[in-house]
Task: inverse folding
């Protein structure tokens, strides 16, 4: 079990000061009505203006090297900033994927030209990314992707489809996982590569797919013989699988896995505090215990990332536990509607609650389903 | 410090692994010479007085040091009152009473307790390991002052409690039992907090062992022509145990890493809740994947799960701490939730 430890990391004074700074910034933005707090804001609530503002504060690409326009701050500092933004329901969806995973992926695997041309724009909040992993016939079984890139003179030809790409309609780039050579008989993970695709290229078409709440964030992207230059390849040809696994650790371990609906919980408590004191302290205590544990685990992972480790299994723990927590939280509030009927809740709270109820199922899908998380853990336990 | 702890852990592990087997657990009694030998080696190593002050011939190490040792002892499944003795000696030492040598246990639940002169009468409830020692630290309130009372009793009025636990517990009637020493408790210390932390560490040590037992058993046991571990349904159940365990360990590492950990009511509550919730799931899943063999005395799983059943109720169950934590936030703070958490 020692490999699943989550060492306790203390929040230093510097981090607490940064927290206050971000909090003040958010309060000011709220006072100026620059945004309306929303649930699941990192998926649904995009504001390129707000992203740009965060960029100018130095809060995007925080850990990136200065020579690419980054701020060379720590993963723990980035953690604190993202937590504050999520807890306030700020509109962070536009830059979320670029800041969370795509930028790091380019810094880790990209060539000098890719780094120089893209990283400064991510840090400025002016360049957004979408994820190109799933396909119509490849979901949980990611290694079965059929989109392929074929070598041509001076570049590559890309053909296929990617689906469920959140925010592709506002993104500038997509990191696309494709086949560049057939899978070998005993290793399906061979022959995959990652490409950095400019979504404004000819023959790329992005089509929205309304989700069950009626909102658009999902997209299907068609690559109809898109001509890519040679340097669109990200990292090493054929090593796409190991690259994508590292990317997923970034995707799964962050505080968005348990703070997506925090604004709902906090508004609920603020509204009904007097009633909760009499009859709800146990329920609230239970939620606090779980939430605080998740924060510690996720913060601990940020420190592992800072130390250059690849906490893929730990990320699966946080994602699995975080999904469960969010479900439990919404259920707890639902049961409370026996005491105060839903129609007597303030309308903003009703909206947050209804949004959360509808959106909760997607939490255990994006970034990998529960079954996949448990499979990853089982493999580490030596069961597979 | 860390190096010193490393050496202690290594030595403790050697001693425990040498002596502890499932047979030892089935005869927890003074007449079991193997058990007595084990204890005397533990005593030679100085573990019982590891957190006792210098002036009482202890090692004077911070109590947080003892958590990994206690956790290890319950991971190996040593049927000895190590945590009870360490805690009893600690509370005595901190309350300025010289701890006696040998095994000692504590009583925190009492009925009709009366003290007249130098004698105490009444009933002590659910006292652990009373068959291995006649020394008890009673921690209770007498005339509105919390007191630490050291007694030695003949043990003739003790009654074995039927309980969940693999380890023995007794109710003990005291009839004018002589008090060896009595002092007001050191007010810095909340014994319930300490107990909750220690029981959580014990639960986590046991759950780590249970996870290993499940992995080993399911990898070896074949049904339908393949190892149980190859069934996805089994894999997912065991993964869930690992998730629960990792969350509990994270809560424990927060406590061990904090400076004055026994004052940190919030984190103690979180730890006891998290470990208690995990224990419930681990008990259910581990028995499920083991089938009937896990439900026998001859196989060691039940030794660990029975202890979990009991420890999750000691020093406040999940409900107790959830209520306390919820009230701490709702009643005593003008903060919103996010401020409270951060």
Result:
């Amino acid at each position: 079990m020692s490999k699943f430890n989550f060492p306790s990391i203390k929040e230093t004074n510097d981090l607490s000061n940064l927290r206050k700074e971000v909090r003040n910034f958010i309060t000011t933005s709220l006072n100026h009505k620059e945004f309306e707090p929303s649930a699941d804001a990192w998926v649904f609530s995009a504001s390129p203006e707000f992203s740009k503002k965060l960029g100018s504060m130095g809060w995007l690409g925080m850990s990136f090297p200065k020579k690419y326009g980054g701020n060379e701050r720590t993963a723990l500092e980035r953690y604190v900033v993202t937590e504050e933004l999520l807890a306030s329901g700020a509109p962070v969806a536009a830059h979320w994927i670029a800041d969370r995973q795509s930028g790091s992926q380019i810094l880790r695997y990209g060539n000098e030209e890719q780094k120089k041309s893209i990283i400064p724009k991510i840090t400025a909040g002016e360049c957004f990314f979408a994820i190109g992993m799933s396909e119509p016939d490849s979901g949980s079984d990611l290694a079965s992707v059929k989109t392929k890139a074929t070598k041509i003179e001076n570049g590559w030809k890309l053909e296929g489809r990617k689906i469920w790409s959140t925010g592709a309609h506002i993104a500038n780039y997509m990191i696309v996982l494709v086949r560049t050579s057939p899978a070998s008989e005993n290793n399906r993970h061979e022959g995959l590569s990652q490409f950095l695709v400019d979504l404004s290229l000819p023959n790329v078409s992005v089509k929205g797919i309304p989700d069950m709440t009626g909102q658009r964030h999902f997209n299907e992207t068609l690559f109809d013989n898109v001509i890519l230059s040679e340097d669109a390849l990200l990292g090493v040809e054929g090593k796409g699988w190991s690259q994508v696994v590292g990317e997923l650790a970034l995707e799964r371990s962050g505080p968005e896995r348990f703070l997506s609906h925090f604004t709902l919980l906090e508004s609920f408590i603020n509204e009904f505090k007097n009633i909760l004191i009499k009859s709800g302290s146990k329920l609230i205590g239970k939620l606090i215990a779980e939430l605080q544990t998740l924060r510690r685990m996720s913060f601990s992972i940020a420190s592992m990332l800072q130390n250059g480790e690849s906490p893929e299994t730990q990320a699966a723990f946080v994602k699995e536990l975080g999904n469960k927590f969010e479900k439990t939280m919404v259920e707890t509030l639902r049961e409370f509607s026996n005491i105060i009927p839903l129609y007597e809740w303030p309308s903003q709270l009703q909206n947050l609650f209804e949004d959360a109820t509808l959106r909760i199922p997607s939490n255990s899908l994006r970034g990998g389903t529960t079954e996949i998380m448990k499979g990853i853990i089982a493999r580490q336990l030596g069961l597979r | 410090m860390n190096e010193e702890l490393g050496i202690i852990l290594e030595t403790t592990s050697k001693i425990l692994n040498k002596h502890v087997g499932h047979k030892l657990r089935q005869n927890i009694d003074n007449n079991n010479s193997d058990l007595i030998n084990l204890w005397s080696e533990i005593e030679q190593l100085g573990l019982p007085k590891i957190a006792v002050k210098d002036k009482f011939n202890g090692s004077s190490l911070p109590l947080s040091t003892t958590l990994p040792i206690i956790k290890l002892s319950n991971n190996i499944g040593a049927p000895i009152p190590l945590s009870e003795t360490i805690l009893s000696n600690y509370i005595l030492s901190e309350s300025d009473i010289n701890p006696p040598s040998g095994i000692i246990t504590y009583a925190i639940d009492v009925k009709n307790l009366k003290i007249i002169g130098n004698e105490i009468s009444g009933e002590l409830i659910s006292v652990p390991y009373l068959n291995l020692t006649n020394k008890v630290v009673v921690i209770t309130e007498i005339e509105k002052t919390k007191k630490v009372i050291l007694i030695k009793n003949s043990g003739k009025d003790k009654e074995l409690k039927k309980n969940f636990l693999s380890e023995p517990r007794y109710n003990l009637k005291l009839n004018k039992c002589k008090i060896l020493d009595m002092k007001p408790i050191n007010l810095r210390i909340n014994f319930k907090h300490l107990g909750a932390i220690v029981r959580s560490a014990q639960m986590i040590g046991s759950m780590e062992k249970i996870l290993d037992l499940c992995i080993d058993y399911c990898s070896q046991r074949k049904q339908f022509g393949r190892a149980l571990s190859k069934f996805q349904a089994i894999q997912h159940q065991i993964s869930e145990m690992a998730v629960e365990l990792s969350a509990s360990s994270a809560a424990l590492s927060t406590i061990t890493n904090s400076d004055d950990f026994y004052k940190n009511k919030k984190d103690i509550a979180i730890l006891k809740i998290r470990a208690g919730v995990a224990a419930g799931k681990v008990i259910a899943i581990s028995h499920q994947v083991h089938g009937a063999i896990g439900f026998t005395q001859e196989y060691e799983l039940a030794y660990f799960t029975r202890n979990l059943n009991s420890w999750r109720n000691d020093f406040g169950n999940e409900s107790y701490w959830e209520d306390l934590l919820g009230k701490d936030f709702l009643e005593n703070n003008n903060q919103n939730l996010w401020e409270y958490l951060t």
